[in-house]
Design a protein that fits this description.
Chain A has eleven helices and twelve strands. Chain A is an alpha/beta fold. Chain A has two domains: 229 residues, Rossmann fold, CATH 3.40.50.300; 69 residues, no CATH class. In chain A, strands 6-7-8-3-9-10-12-11 form an eight-stranded mixed β-sheet, sandwiched between helices. A four-stranded antiparallel β-sheet of chain A has the order 2-1-4-5, covered by helices on one side. Chain B is of the alpha/beta class. Helix content of chain B is 30%, strand content 25%. Chain B is built from ten helices and twelve strands. The two termini of chain B are 33 Å apart. The relative contact order of chain B is 0.13. The chains are: A alpha/beta, B alpha/beta. Chains A and B meet through helix 6, helix 7 and helix 9 of A and helix 7, helix 8, helix 9 and helix 10 of B.
């Protein structure tokens, strides 16, 4: 089997004072070994929650996550700690995700110490090797995070995630907090390491240019649901869901020759707390008809690789 | 250039932050910029390039100490802002020049309703009653697309995009002639960003407001601005009309910025990166600040600071090699 991860009808609800918040609501997809899936969507659409549920940082409410042939939603603590060696996460904010009282060495070595079974010498060898891999000069080994800039801090976060040699990594907006010139350095690093170690990435971001560049497949999320799933090239050439169309058109293009045909969405985002059984995008959708306001659309396959959840996907795109 | 056309004119502004621990941090060095009436200028640069310090200096909001304006003049309608006393600058601040702050989460007062916060600006600057100010505040909210029924709600009841729109409504409440927007859309999603940019474009058209847009997003600059200034280590390294710079970037740093963007067009497997980091502002080199990271550098670059050279009309570059044809 070459699917490293299969997700079936995954749900994560949070109880809040005003009801139940549907953060992730019935998401299904599969990931092949060595590929990158990009997850895009607006803030609050459940991208980060999805990432956290996938590596079991938080429990899911319903559904299955099959990782390497095993359903990880039903495992106990001990198995979970074994699992951690195989799945890791790179966090968004390199300023707050590192322990300020740990040096670079301590931060990168900690996962090895927790996993156990390594001698001091092995740990030190591995840490130095990892610093080379992620491009941190060895002289920085005793520095604290506050002494380093954002790019270097993100390199520490990457080194820490990679030290146990996982095969699957969730990257939660790893470059959003960085400047363009540093962003390019980190993206190149992630691509190089992926090639070298045959890693599988789930790449969560709201930057559509970055996601296009790095992903094989892209999942578009809207209020906890997957509205479109497609190979990266195809999504940009032929977006099918009205939300994807608006999202792509809203990206400011750094090109003065570019013709501007921006679709500006009207209206506010529907609340994910106790949502009605309707298409969640219907309140902002230009194509919405009666059925959209009372029935939630099923995911339909336009072709074997491209799926979309919209009642009128075929009509508005002139298919069949 | 016609002097009278400029609404704001910054001349040789230098700002230092002085602390015991780190010494003198040279944040802004001999910065000069003219903003014409109705013009939108983009100010682009990396974190720490000094963009925000420039904006804060214009409004005299710089925290002193540790910040200190060591030299320069900022003329607003012919008067030097840096020589004004507090009551004079207060009349301008918020009424004629206003600022949209970077982070909408922290720019609003959490214990006042949003309507009251907007009304406060109006009440302070216009001769109106409190009740009238509230009415005008409601109009300002409607203008940015927030129903006026929500004016008695508190910031925590709004989403990030809506909070940013409240900040914008506050900044626009008195129809300023110059708007300083410090990364107004960086914290927002692209769909909300599109709404906010449309709104600012409309105001520019309707009120002929001048705009200084601080950002690191070159896409936003392409959509919004007439001219763009690229800032590096406290100084402008390239300035000119947006079209001229986007078609034909001259400074190696500007070129690097464009090449580092993941673009629609190129299909190469790796992104081009600018290696290295910005120089330490407490220890700036006495020559070209970009020299340590520059791949085009020649012998002269490590010897002295380059002067501005005009390469085409209104397009100035601070580089020893400007105008020479490479790659």
């Amino acid at each position: 089997m070459n699917n490293i991860l299969e997700v079936k009808n995954l749900k994560k609800y949070f109880d809040v004072s005003s009801g139940t918040l549907h953060a992730v609501d019935g998401v299904s997809f599969s990931v092949k070994k060595g590929e990158t899936i990009g997850v895009v969507g607006e803030s609050g659409c459940g991208k980060s929650t999805l990432g956290r549920v996938l590596i079991h940082l938080i429990d899911n409410t319903d559904g299955q996550i099959v990782f390497n042939g095993k359903d990880i939603t039903k495992i106990d603590r001990k198995e979970l700690s074994n699992l951690r060696k195989d799945m890791q996460m790179i966090f968004q904010d390199p300023y707050s995700s590192l322990n300020p009282r740990f040096t670079v060495y301590q931060t990168i070595a900690e996962p090895l110490q927790i996993a156990g079974g390594f001698s001091q010498q092995e740990i030190s060898e591995r840490v130095y090797k990892m610093m080379d891999t992620v491009g941190l000069a060895r002289r920085l080994v005793n520095s604290y995070p506050h002494e380093l800039d954002g790019g270097r801090r993100q390199r520490i976060g990457i080194g820490r995630a990679l030290i146990l040699e996982p095969s699957f990594i969730v990257c939660d907006e790893p470059v959003s907090a960085l400047d363009v010139s540093i962003q390019a350095q980190i993206i190149n690093l992630l691509l190089d390491i992926q090639e070298e170690k045959k890693l599988t990435y789930i790449f969560i971001t709201h930057d559509l240019m970055v996601v296009k560049y790095i992903s094989n497949n892209i999942m578009v999320m809207y209020l906890g649901q997957m509205v479109e799933f497609s190979p990266s090239e195809e999504l940009f050439e032929q977006p099918l869901h009205p939300y994807t169309k608006a999202l792509l058109s809203a990206v400011p293009v750094p090109d003065v020759e570019h013709e501007k045909k921006r679709i500006v969405l009207k209206g506010e985002v529907t609340s994910p707390i106790n949502p009605k059984p309707c298409c969640r995008f219907s309140a902002r959708c230009a194509y919405a008809k009666d059925i959209c306001h009372c029935k939630s659309p099923e995911l339909i396959e336009v072709n074997p690789k491209h799926k979309v959840a919209c009642h009128f996907a075929k009509e508005i795109n002139g298919l069949e | 250039m016609n002097q009278n056309n400029n609404i704001l004119s910054i001349k040789d502004l230098s700002v230092h932050y002085i602390t015991k621990e780190t010494g003198i941090c040279k944040a802004v060095n001999k910065f000069s910029l003219d903003i014409k009436k109705g013009e939108a200028i983009g100010l682009v640069g990396e974190t720490g390039a000094g963009k925000t310090t420039v904006a804060l200096s214009i409004l005299k909001l710089l925290q002193t100490p540790p910040g200190k304006v060591v030299s320069g003049e900022i003329f607003y309608k012919g008067k030097d802002i840096l020589k004004m006393n507090n009551s004079e600058i207060r009349k301008i601040r918020g009424e004629e020049i206003s600022m949209i702050f970077q982070d909408p989460m922290t720019a609003l007062n959490p214990i006042d309703s949003v309507g009251k916060q907007i009304a406060e600006v109006i009440y302070l600057h216009k001769k109106v009653s409190k009740r009238e100010a509230m009415k005008l505040a409601a109009d300002a909210l409607e203008l940015v697309g927030i129903p006026k029924e929500r004016m008695n709600e508190y910031p925590n009841q709004f989403s990030g995009g809506m909070k940013q729109r409240v900040v914008i409504a506050t900044a626009l409440a008195c129809s300023p002639q110059l708007l300083l927007a410090d990364e107004p859309t960086t914290a927002l999603d692209v769909t909300i960003q599109a709404q906010v940019l449309d709104l600012m474009n409309e105001l520019k058209k309707n009120l002929n407001t001048s705009l200084l847009l601080i950002t690191h997003d070159l896409g936003v600059v392409a959509e919004m601005c007439d001219r763009v200034a690229i800032m590096y280590a406290g100084e402008i390294v390239e300035i000119g009309p947006v079209k001229s710079i986007f078609r034909n970037p001259q400074h190696p740093y500007t070129r690097g910025l464009f090449e580092a963007l993941p673009s629609n067009k190129s299909n190469s497997k790796r992104l081009k990166q600018i290696d290295g980091l910005m120089p330490d502002p407490t220890n700036l080199p006495p020559y070209c600040k970009f020299e340590p990271r520059c791949s085009k550098g020649s012998k002269g670059c490590g010897a002295q600071c380059p002067e501005f050279i005009e390469v085409s009309e209104g397009h100035w570059v601070r580089c020893h090699l400007a105008g020479e044809k490479w790659g």
